[in-house]
Automatic annotation (TrEMBL):
Keywords of this entry: DNA recombination
PANTHER family assigned to the protein according to its UniProt record, in alphabetical order: PHAGE INTEGRASE-RELATED (PTHR30349), PROPHAGE INTEGRASE INTD-RELATED (PTHR30349:SF64)
Segments crossing the lipid bilayer: none
Organism: Riemerella columbipharyngis
Record domain Tyr recombinase: where: 224-414
The protein, known as: Phage integrase family protein
């Protein structure tokens, strides 16, 4: 297959440059590139503008012709082998797309944000592995789109697919850090979706920059300092008497259920008695759609018993996060702890997570339930059992999620050795001094 350029001489010396797509007897297509040149400056043998001083736009035209030839060759190879019809209309459209000569209904074929907009609009009807995209995923796409729109407004530009280069990456990441004050993990999620959309655009055979595949075009990330509650602290919460404060008593009981089930707040807040059978909680996770089964332990059983077999009253996530901070403060979880919490960062009331050392109760949110459950059970029961309940799909993800310190992991191993020795009737022979 060859891509050729030629001009048609006319009385007027200004002539259009034509592109020809030819492959033996199978394909012979021609269309205008829309680029014009004085035919006296055209080098027919080398199919480019001659190196003449008078041809002031020679470098621009020659560069564009090389890029167009590369683009047509690549898209032809992809689409011909994808059983897409290659005809004169196909060639005409590809040339129009390359030069950004599209009408409003085709903007997404040239402009990155327009592509994302159209994807988000159609997202409710799209499938991922046979299932509809979750509202949470669609919201993440929309959030990413909003940040891109803000970036375009800030830069006074409209990003094309070909603009998503490594230079764009560094500039955009810098904008997110310095102007938007976003966390590294938030920026990482945005970059993840940008790479996803670049891959989709690339698959469609549109002229997208290949820089999204570069090893430096990566998700920024940071080590989070999320906290968890130890079993001792959980016992303190369970045993504390909130009898004179029904509001905190109810929130404490919800917290105990969350801490002992490993369920997300969106799941344990909608628990009802229909989810409990034979001393087991069985519920379909709202986020993943997977079924979780968790046996009821003594703390949950006591919570149900004190309420006459009923569950505590569900409350909003916002109230839950507020009330459990009050619970932690009341009990005395006030040791300075490294973590991050939402704080106002400017006069406009913008809030962002800010890392630092805070009283532990100030760092308590609904996420502490699932993380404490996983962290406290790690090393006590097989990891796959915990993962089946928490919904982590890989052990790497799970190990990144739990918050065991090196010394705590050493203690788990020490206890394992001790139990193994006791089972074998052995006694320790070494004493650490």
């Amino acid at each position: 297959m060859k891509v050729l350029y030629f001009i048609k001489k006319r009385k007027n010396p200004i002539s259009k440059i034509y592109i020809r797509l030819w492959e033996s007897k199978k394909i012979d297509l021609t269309t205008s590139t829309g680029v014009q040149i004085n035919y006296n400056y055209w080098d027919s043998k080398n199919e480019k503008v001659k190196n003449k001083v008078e041809a002031i736009d020679k470098d621009f035209i020659n560069t564009k012709l090389l890029e167009l030839k590369k683009y047509i060759t690549e898209t032809y190879n992809i689409e011909f082998n994808s059983e897409i019809t290659i005809n004169a209309e196909w060639l005409k459209k590809k040339v129009a797309i390359f030069f950004n000569r599209v009408d409003d209904s085709q903007l997404e074929k040239v402009y990155f944000v327009e592509w994302v907009k159209k994807f988000v609009e159609n997202a409710p009807n799209k499938l991922n592995r046979g299932k509809k995209l979750s509202p949470r995923t669609i919201l993440a796409y929309q959030t990413m789109l909003n940040h891109l729109l803000d970036y375009e407004a800030y830069k006074k530009t409209n990003l094309k697919h070909s603009d998503i280069t490594l230079s764009f990456y560094w500039d955009f990441v810098g904008y997110c850090r310095d102007i938007k004050k976003l966390s590294e993990n938030t920026i990482g999620n945005i970059i993840k979706y940008i790479k996803f959309f670049c891959g989709s655009i690339d698959f469609e055979g549109l002229p997208v920059s290949k820089d999204y595949k570069h090893k430096e075009f990566v998700k920024p990330k940071e080590q989070t300092d999320d906290i968890y509650l130890t079993t001792k602290e959980i016992d303190q919460i369970f045993n504390y008497d909130f009898g004179d404060n029904p509001r905190l008593d109810n929130a404490r009981d919800l917290l105990i259920i969350g801490l002992n089930t490993g369920l997300r707040v969106s799941d344990f807040m909608r628990l009802d008695l229909s989810h409990i059978k034979d001393d087991t909680i069985r519920i379909q996770a709202k986020k993943t759609g997977k079924i979780a089964e968790i046996p009821i332990n003594e703390q949950i059983a006591h919570t149900l018993e004190k309420r006459g077999g009923n569950l505590p009253k569900a409350i909003s996530d916002q109230k839950f996060n507020k009330y459990i901070k009050e619970i932690g403060q009341t009990i005395g979880f006030d040791e300075l702890t490294k973590g991050a919490k939402m704080e106002i960062i400017d006069d406009k009331g913008t809030t962002r997570k800010v890392s630092g050392f805070y009283p532990k109760y100030e760092l308590m949110t609904s996420h502490i339930c699932r993380r404490s459950f996983a962290t406290n059970l790690y090393g006590q029961i097989p990891t796959p059992v915990i993962m089946a309940i928490t919904g982590h799909t890989t052990e790497a993800m799970f190990l990144n999620y739990i918050k065991k310190t090196a010394s705590e992991n050493a203690e788990v191993l020490r206890n394992f050795y001790k139990r193994s020795a006791e089972e074998k009737g052995l006694k320790p022979v070494l004493k650490v001094i």
